[in-house]
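so my prof wants the structure for this chain in the tokens format not the other one, which i didnt know existed until like an hour ago. anyway here's the sequence
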Amino acid sequence: MQSVVPSLRVSQQQSSSNTNFIIRGFGNGANNAGIEPSVGVFVDGVYRSRSTSQISDLPNLQRVEVLRGPQSTLFGKNASAGVISIVTQKPQFEWGGNVEGTVSNYNGYRAGAFVTGPISDTLAFSLGGNFNTRDGYVEDLGDGPDTNERNRWGLRGDLLWEPNDDMSFRLIADYDEIDEICCAAANVINGPTGAAILAL
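here's what i got, hopefully its the right format
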């Protein structure tokens, strides 16, 4: 996302649940569970206060909005640096759906699907699910397992009630589970300064 949005920087810390969003050089909180970020993340208008609750492969994504600068007037607290607003598709009153899948190296498998349709003239629903798995690609030379694996899945349900043309209500429930051993990093090439520093 940062490749197409000016002034946005996305970084991952020690784990996949420690993702940090920085807008115009401002952002904090991903590396400390006690600090809420200054870039607020909202999914369908609901504030997600921790990075762990923001991770989900939403199969029915409609758009992602990046709002730069203070947004507290519209979004409340924790939006002093900006907002990332994720909007999913509303349930439709016509039957539809989507299925997608990907196979990659390291036994990587990713799939997502959703279905939507009417229950009555005023009530529609959508159901979606996803999973994403991959073996670790960093080998532990000790007794530990390979790290930097991926193992996550999620479910999402959405009900839309439109009693008339001027009123609508949405009831959304989602559940995501992440069980990963992440994240490891290694130097590809040791620089010439390493020996000098160790000699001190």
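also thought this was worth mentioning. The chain has a mean pLDDT of 83.
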